[in-house]
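TA notes, week 10

Several of you asked for a full example with nothing omitted. So below is the full record: structure tokens for the whole chain, then the designed sequence directly under it. When grading your own attempts, check the secondary structure regions first.
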């Protein structure tokens, strides 16, 4: 947490009294004085930074254009700092026993003074109560002979109390005199990084995580063990965090009925006894598929009774390629090619392969036509088959076009007015004509 100390103009008589005065230096003794802050915009335009043992005002001052510091036995080196002193800057005066120079925000400004022989005036009060202007103090430090003997840090106060801590080895804290008692002199500011502090604690394993606890300026993770990666609980959503309570699921083969709530999905496992147990669906339109609950052996297939012309049986397993059951088919002995499989000769052959026929397209079609009772050449077999389907006139391509679209042909077995229709012929292995 970062704070600066707001020191009001001299008329409020506020100043900082060190626990121990810092005495005079020795002639030619190197020192460095660093002050970080900004002019507060009220009171005098001159800000006296500290008062030495001589109790003279104005020995070390900052104004709109210059930084001035007194050295006993020499005078007061003065530097043009070149910045807007109403903004926050760091001013560092350096004396190495011979040269004196000023750095602003880490960069040396013009006006280095050489051949300086003097000594430090000491410090009695910080920002003494004179006619000085208001000042916001972020940091003040003093090094003698390369050793830090004073390091006043407002942030170390945590924004409360009447002590300005010295974080150097000296512990020379400053007491706030005539300042407010409500801590209003401590002003919080963002020092960068958002003020986020992460305090790490031990985490049991990569599979464990806990409930984040958010506090001002810190995030604490409290690990909580989860039984296994397969365990999932019911998420409970609350403002700012998600808490997960693990709930064991017996096996991956259990599936339940999801219940969807505004905050999540609850899964209730339901046991399925075995993968081999299936019910008997009933199909009232189209083709009925019978799924047996249990098959005694791989060579056994039941004899379901199907009222349609075509019955296809797909046994779960056949003992060998030579072993096939004999399903009972009622209502006819012809294989009906579905309309969607009549589009081309290739489509017809593809469908027939899905039944029991094998071979190239023409071979498959010839085997099928022979099973229908036609045992001539390829085109002759098609001609006879299409005639048997009632397509009696036109070229074979015309007959096939009607058959492909599923248009019904003329039934040669139809009776006309109770007598045989002599205009028709038997479409069988023989041709019958009226004598």
């Amino acid at each position: 947490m970062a704070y600066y100390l707001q020191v009001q103009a001299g008329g409020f008589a506020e100043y900082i009294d060190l626990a121990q005065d810092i005495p005079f230096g020795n002639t030619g003794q190197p020192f460095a004085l660093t002050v970080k802050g900004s002019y507060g915009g009220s009171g005098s335009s001159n800000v006296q930074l500290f008062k030495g043992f001589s109790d003279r005002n104005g020995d070390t001052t900052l104004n709109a254009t210059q930084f001035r510091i007194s050295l006993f036995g020499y005078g007061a080196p003065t530097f043009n700092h070149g910045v807007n002193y109403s903004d926050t800057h760091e001013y560092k005066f350096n004396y190495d026993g011979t040269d004196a120079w000023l750095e602003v925000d880490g960069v040396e400004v013009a006006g280095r003074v050489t051949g300086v022989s003097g000594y430090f005036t000491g410090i009695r009060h910080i920002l003494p109560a004179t006619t000085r202007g208001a000042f916001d103090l972020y940091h003040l430090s003093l090094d003698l002979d390369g050793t830090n003997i004073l390091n006043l840090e407002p942030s170390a106060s945590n924004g409360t109390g009447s002590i300005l801590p010295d974080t150097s080895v000296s512990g020379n804290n400053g007491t706030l005199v005539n300042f407010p008692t409500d801590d209003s002199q401590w002003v919080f500011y963002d020092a960068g990084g958002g003020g986020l502090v992460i305090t790490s604690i031990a985490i049991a394993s990569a599979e464990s995580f806990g409930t984040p606890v958010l506090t001002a300026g810190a995030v604490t993770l409290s690990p909580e063990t989860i039984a296994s990666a397969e365990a999932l609980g019911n998420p409970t959503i609350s403002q700012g965090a998600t808490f997960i309570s693990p709930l064991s699921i017996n096996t991956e083969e259990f599936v339940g009925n999801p219940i969807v709530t505004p905050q999540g999905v609850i899964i209730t496992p339901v046991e399925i006894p075995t993968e081999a147990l299936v019910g008997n669906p009933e199909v009232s339109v189209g083709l009925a598929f019978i799924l047996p609950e249990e098959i005694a052996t791989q060579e056994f297939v039941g004899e379901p009774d199907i009222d349609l012309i075509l019955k296809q049986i797909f046994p779960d397993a056949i003992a060998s390629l030579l072993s096939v059951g004999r399903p009972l088919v009622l209502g006819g002995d012809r294989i009906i090619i579905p309309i969607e499989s009549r589009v081309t000769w290739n489509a017809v052959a593809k469908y027939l392969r899905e039944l029991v026929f094998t071979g190239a397209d023409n071979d498959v079609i010839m085997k099928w036509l022979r099973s229908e009772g036609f045992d001539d050449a390829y085109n002759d077999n098609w001609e006879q088959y299409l005639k048997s389907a009632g397509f009696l006139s036109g070229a074979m391509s015309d007959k096939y076009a009607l058959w492909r679209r599923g248009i019904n042909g003329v039934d040669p077995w139809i009776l006309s007015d109770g007598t045989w229709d002599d205009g028709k012929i038997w479409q069988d292995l023989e041709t019958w004509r009226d004598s």
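DSSP finds four helices and 27 strands in the chain. Use that as a sanity check on your answer.
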